[in-house]
Structures are given as structure tokens and as C-alpha cells.
Design goal:
Elements lengths: L3 H16 L5 H9 L7 H8 L7 H8 L4 H5 L4 H5 L2 H20 L7 H14 L8 H7 L7 H26 L4 H10 L6 H8 L3 H13 L11 H17 L2 H6 L1 H20 L12
């Protein structure tokens, strides 16, 4: 059995390789080329397409911390412009292009990428679909080729598996989507507050009302910082998330997890050095 820390470190090494697609100009080009409108539509349709032509309620529920009004501005309109299959194909073309740009064309033939893809796919064998809708939808998709796309797919499956568990942990902690977003930015480890509010579609009034509710609960103080109660709440939530996400790493074993973390970390460092994420998105970066 691997440690919770080892699983969390592996997730931390791999997750940027998935999420960089949300900031890549290639994604906007491929999504608009498939018929979608510019802007946030590509994000919502691209991530939700694995579930089929679902409505705004399903997307808001599974994405959790986005304003339902923002979701409804793009879903279900996206499905009138492009089918889920068309969107998924566009997303994969974008992944191919952005990984080649950030990691070099040799990424498609890199033996360590092939090794990491096999390790990540093996880890997903231990994931169970019950109560994990975004994971289950992505796990049903065929693994693509070549290896860099297979790796991205397996990382995405692992990421959505952890994400579904994280939503369960947040719900257990009594943190709704906006409250979860506010408390996470207050840790100083996630998005900047400005990016979090605007990218998730919340108005200043909605943000302040939720903050006031958290103050009343003693979760944040008058300065918007986490109190002792708030820090404990976030810590318990993250520990519960780690517990719910541990099965794939236990299945892979300590040696496999360490190797996957090492390769993923190398690739992530290269992607970050080549500008995978714009400035002003993450606190302290």
C-alpha cells in the first residue's frame, strides 16, 4: 500500500499535464473550428462531452464551483453547434498540438512517455465508477494513440476520478461550489482570487455574500483569511480527498508511483518552463 502523500505527489506531478489544455490557444482554435463559439463554451463542452449532450444542470453539478448562470450561457447551446463526438475529437487534436509545442515533437516517440502512459493506464485499472460520473464518462472513452495522447487520456481519467471524490469530500464538509472556491483561494495555494471569481462566473455580489456566510460560520476572518476552524476544515477535506483517491496508487505500487511521479514531474517542469500557464492565474506564480 502506498502512502497518501505519495499518491498526492503523483497527482501533483501529473495534473498540470492535463489542465494545461484549458489555457492553450490550440484548444480555442480546434473548438471554434468544430463549430463552437469563442470563449468559455469550449471548456464546458470539451470537458462535458464525454458524458454526452447533457444539460446545464448536470454540468454545473459535476463541475461544482462554476456559476450555474455561466454554464447555462453555453450549455446546451454547444450541442446545437457540434456533437459531443465532434468536440471530443477537437479536444484530442488540441492536446496533440499543445503537447508537441510545449514538450517538443519527440514527445510522441519518447520511451519514457510510453512508460508513463502504461503506468498511468495500469493505475486506472483500480478505479471504480460508482458515484464518479466524470470519471466514468472518461473511462468509457477509448484510449488514443500515440503514447503522449494515451498518457494525457490516462492522466485525465485519474484526474476526474480524484475530482469526483473531491466533490464528495467538499459536500461532506458543508462547502458548496462557491464556498469551496473562496476557501481554496484563501489557502494561497490555488487560483488568485480575481482569476477564480471571473473564470468561474461569479459576480462580486455573489462572492461577497458567500464570504459573509463563511465569516458567520467562523471559517474565514474579517480579512478573508482562513481561521483555525477554516484551516482544519480545508485540511480535513483534502485528507478525505486523498483517501478517496488512493486506490489507483495502491494498485500501481510504491515503485510504480515513484516512477510515474518522476516522469510526470519532468514533463510538467518542461511544460511550465515553456509557458503552459499564463501569469496571474495561480497564487505565488
Amino acid at each position: 500500500m502506498t502512502s497518501l502523500l505519495a499518491g498526492k505527489q503523483c497527482h501533483g506531478a501529473l495534473n498540470p499535464l492535463h489542465s494545461l489544455i484549458y489555457f492553450a490557444p490550440e484548444a480555442e482554435e480546434e473548438f471554434t473550428g468544430s463549430g463552437l463559439h469563442k470563449g468559455r463554451m469550449g471548456y464546458f463542452a470539451g470537458r462535458a462531452a464525454a458524458m454526452g449532450a447533457v444539460g446545464p444542470g448536470v454540468v454545473a453539478a459535476t463541475f461544482y464551483n462554476f456559476s450555474p448562470a455561466l454554464v447555462a450561457a453555453h450549455i446546451p447551446r454547444a450541442w446545437d453547434l457540434a456533437t459531443p463526438g465532434t468536440v471530443l475529437a477537437a479536444r484530442l487534436r488540441a492536446v496533440d498540438r499543445v503537447l508537441r509545442r510545449l514538450l517538443g515533437d519527440s514527445v510522441a516517440d519518447d520511451p519514457e512517455v510510453r512508460e508513463a502512459a502504461a503506468l498511468a493506464a495500469a493505475a486506472t485499472e483500480a478505479c471504480a465508477p460508482a458515484g464518479r460520473p466524470l470519471y466514468a464518462a472518461h473511462a468509457d472513452l477509448p484510449a488514443p494513440e500515440p503514447a503522449h495522447l494515451a498518457l494525457w487520456h490516462a492522466i485525465t481519467v485519474l484526474r476526474e476520478y480524484r475530482g469526483d471524490g473531491h466533490l464528495a469530500a467538499l459536500s461532506t464538509s458543508g462547502l458548496g461550489g462557491l464556498e469551496a472556491l473562496i476557501t481554496h483561494t484563501a489557502t494561497g495555494e490555488g487560483f488568485t482570487e480575481e482569476f477564480a471569481r471571473h473564470s468561474r462566473g461569479w459576480t462580486a455580489e455573489e462572492w461577497e455574500a458567500a464570504r459573509e456566510g463563511l465569516r458567520a460560520r467562523g471559517v474565514i476572518d474579517s480579512e478573508g483569511r482562513l481561521t483555525v476552524l477554516g484551516r482544519d476544515l480545508r485540511s480535513e477535506t483534502e485528507e478525505r480527498t486523498d483517501l478517496l483517491a488512493r486506490s489507483p496508487y495502491d494498485h500501481l505500487g510504491q515503485t510504480g508511483v515513484e516512477r510515474l511521479t518522476a516522469i510526470g514531474g519532468r514533463l510538467t517542469r518542461t511544460a511550465l518552463a515553456n509557458g503552459a500557464f499564463p501569469p496571474g492565474v495561480f497564487a505565488g506564480r
